[in-house]
Amino acid sequence: MFKRSMLSVTTLLVVMSLALFGAGCVGNNSDDGGEAIMVKGSDTVLPLAQAEAEVFMNENPGKYVSIIGGGSGVGIAALIDGEVDIAMTSRAMKDVEIENAHNNGINPLQHTIAWDGISVIVNPENPISELTFEQIKAIYVGDVSNWNEVGGEDREIVVLSRDSSSGTYEYFKDEVLEGNEFRADALINPSTGSIIQTVMQNKAAIGYAGVAYLGNDVKALAVDAGEGAEEPTAENILSGAYPLARPLYFYTDGEPAGLNLEFIEFISSELGSETVLEVGYFPA
User: Fold this and answer.
1) pTM
2) In this protein, which residues make up the domain named PBP (predicted)?
3) Which domains does the chain have, with CATH numbers?
């Protein structure tokens, strides 16, 4: 359905080395005297930012972009503390976060860099192919605990969720759970990759992930928000038919300049937009 771009070994080494020398510093120069910036935050945005950084660095020798995940909340906190040049998020900053940033002399400015679809995923051997919002909510708040209650096999459901620092967690809670709390026995995962891995290995599991993480090892369900079930295809997301779609953001401290501005503008360029599509997201 979607193809995720993978970093080359060279780029991974560059990203890892930059993370080591750049932690806690903003606007660094690299060891070879080139310009360097650090980008941190959302695991949903992570594969996109990594792919964009790889292409950008190939096009701009001597300029380096370090990419680190950890969750939207982690990236926002790092921006507020002045530890990174760009925070990448899958949700808008909260009023309290903006207030904390202002109190710390940081003026967050939002940049929409792409659009994403959130997929509800199960193991490929699960016979379920679609669920309504009501059924998904019932599973995640604890009202439904066996797959046979939603038309599946007699098997206890293993419910997977991201942690509360994740923007995807907050989006899913607001849009699907309508603000209700996740069930107490939901298995909390520190990354989208760990959700994918568990769903691959467990026939009873259900999780949620950005479409860029989808592959043949998991099955994305069609979801019905009340107007018929829709699959998370590119066509449905771009047309607005798929109900779980959202913007992805970069945040900078004020108007970006220098390498920050170059990298943000590159993502919206023709080459950057091609990369957005290759990763499995959609140009802003």
Assistant:
1) 0.78
2) 33-269
3) 9-115+247-283 (3.40.190.10), 117-239 (3.40.190.10)
